[in-house]
Amino acid sequence: MTAPAYPHRHLLGIEPLEASHIQAVLDTAEALREVLDRPIKKVPALRGKTVVNLFYEASTRTRASFEIAEKVLSADSLSIATSTSSVQKGETLLDTAKNLEAMNPDMIVLRHSASGAAHFLARHCRSAIVNAGDGAHEHPTQALLDALTLRQRKGRLEGLRVAIVGDVLHSRVARSNLWLLTKMGAKVTLCAPPTLMPPGIETLAPTTSRIEEAVEGADAIMMLRIQQERMTGGYFPTLREYHARFGLTEERVRLAKKDVLILHPGPMNRGVEIASEVADGPYSVILDQVTNGVAVRMAVLYLLLGGAEAA
Q1: Could you give the strand order of the β-sheet that contains 107-112, starting from the edge strand earlier in sequence?
Q2: What is the model's pLDDT at position 154?
C-alpha cells in the first residue's frame, strides 16, 4: 500500500491541516478498514515500531481504539494510566515524557486535561506526538473518524449541512469538527445555550440557541456531551430542563432530512442530550463511529510512522 502525502511529523490538531492532508488520512483509513473485517486482523506495517499511550484523563473509546490499531498494525505498545504512575508522586508532564522518551519510543499518544499539552510535548520531544484530546482545545482523531463516517454514508463531505448541538464551550470535539468540516466544504451550524457558546465563535460558523432551527434540513446532527466535570458554575438550571430545550428527540429528528445521520462522540448522557430511542434508532451511526475510530487511528499511526507494507 502506498500512503497518500501527509507532510506532518505530528498530529496535534485539525486547525493546522489543509484539506488535502485530511483527505490523505481519510483515504488511508478507508484502505485500512478492510483489515478489521479479516479473520486474522494483523498486518506487519509497523513491526518494530513502539508507541506509548499516555492518558492523563479517563477514556474508553479513544484509548481502546488506539491500542487495537497499534496491535493490528503489529506495533509494540505500552499504555500508561497516570493514576498508577509517578505522576501521582508529583512528576511533571515534561519529566514523564522525557523519561519515557529515554526508552526510545517512536510515538507518544497523549490525552491531557490542559489545552496545548500535545503542542508542548512536540516542542520538547523527539518522538512523534499524537493529540488524543487536550483540554477543551482539540480532539483531531475524533473529527477524522466522524468525517469518515459521514463520507461513507453520504459519499461526500462538501455541501453537507451539519448541526453540532450541545456543550460547545467545553467541547474539543466541536472545535476539531468545526475546523475539519468547514475545510472540507460542509456547512456547519452550532447550537447551544448562550452560556455554553464560546464568545466570538460566530465568526467561524452560524450559531443559534434553538435546536429546532439548527436541525431543520440537516444532513447530519452531531450531539455533544454535557461536560459537567469541566463546569465550574451553573450553566443551565437542571438536566431535565436542558433535555427539554436542547435534547435530541424523535420529534426534533423529524425536522431534519429524511436520511439524516445522528452522531455522538460518547460517552452519552441518555435522556440529557439525546433520547435513547434516537441513540438506538435507525438514523444513528454512533457504533459506526466507534468502528471507524480504529480505522482512522490505524491511518494516523501508519502515516506518521512510515508504514511500509499493509498486506
Answers
A1: 76-81, 50-55, 107-112, 128-134
A2: 98
